[in-house]
Amino acid sequence: MSIAIQSNSPLRTLPDDYCPPGADRWFTVPEGYDAGKTLFYSDYCPVGVTPEKTVLFVHGNPECSYTYRHARQALQDSQVPLRIVCPDHIGFGISDQADYEMVDMHHADNLRMLIEHLDLRNVILVIHDWGGPIGVGAFLDQMDRVDGLVVLNTTIFPMPADGYTYDAWPLRVMPWSSLGWVIPRSLWGGAAASVLEGANPAPVGLIYGRSFIKQVRFALGRIPVNTPAYVFSESLRSKANARSSQRNVRQTPVWGHGYAYTDRKHGKQDNHDFYRRMQAQLPACWGCAGRGIPAAAHFGEFDPCGKASVRDQWLTALPQLDKAMHVYPEVGHFVEEYKGPEIARSICAVAGLSE
């Protein structure tokens, strides 16, 4: 991949499809905790096209912009008149390393500055995992910049206690949230490498067995290059990035409820107000009581973020999702890994285009 990496990310070898050729861009965060850090993003538009709308893909944890490659490629292949912007958050992908325990509100602030730098308007916002609160949170003071929303296994609402929960999934004795505490930082990239394999229905023993094997391979440097597992894991080879990523995992049981913790560099961090504002403003601005923006959703059901009660929260906030909600019982958390073309079609529909 012919990207000249301008950051201190541990990820130095990239697959050819990490971003569209010539679309690699770099942004220096101007202020806040990450002032001076370098953030990577790709910025693509078909040649000779003046797009009316911009697709903004926002990733979560422990992934990076590469998680959207299938949906992005489907849009590129169809040559629809859309600008496509896809950033890596600080601490992920090939952006600069994190130097404190970052959570959604910190990434949202950095994304807000990128949005303002590029003056993105008429945005089709695509969100997955922690990218939900990051993406929605970035627009809290400028909700009118968004013209459409595509939701992929994420939430900004208090995680319901029924069914799958992150303090009991996939196994109550050792749930996903506990791994942020028990796996050493030096092996955390191996857990990231295993998430794609462990995200679909499978026996619990197989899920944890795969995770253990990936951690061993990561420690030995034997995860194949040019694979999603390598991309996700190698950016977490630094202990600084691993520590920040693990903080997100530790908070999954209280996803959407708001939480507080103490960072050793910046002291007490509290995002309760961040969530309250999103939960009030999203339905008021984007729901039927507001602009009623077009919206679609794709949920892998084998996941706490894909269960019926979470989908109902989204439907309450955005009733227009009722006719554009796609549910896949055979898919887990990383729905974009398996349903890229379907997601691309939803993006086109939300944008008012035919693929």
Automatic annotation (TrEMBL):
GO terms for cellular component: membrane. Residues 54-161 form the AB hydrolase-1 domain. The keyword Transit peptide does not apply. It holds the Pfam family Abhydrolase_1. One of its GO terms (molecular function) is hydrolase activity. Keywords: Hydrolase. It comes from the Bacteria. InterPro entries: AB_hydrolase_1 (IPR000073), AB_hydrolase_fold (IPR029058), AB_hydrolase_sf (IPR050266), Epox_hydrolase-like (IPR000639). PANTHER family: CIS-3-ALKYL-4-ALKYLOXETAN-2-ONE DECARBOXYLASE, MONOACYLGLYCEROL LIPASE. This is Alpha/beta hydrolase. It comes from Alcanivorax hongdengensis A-11-3.
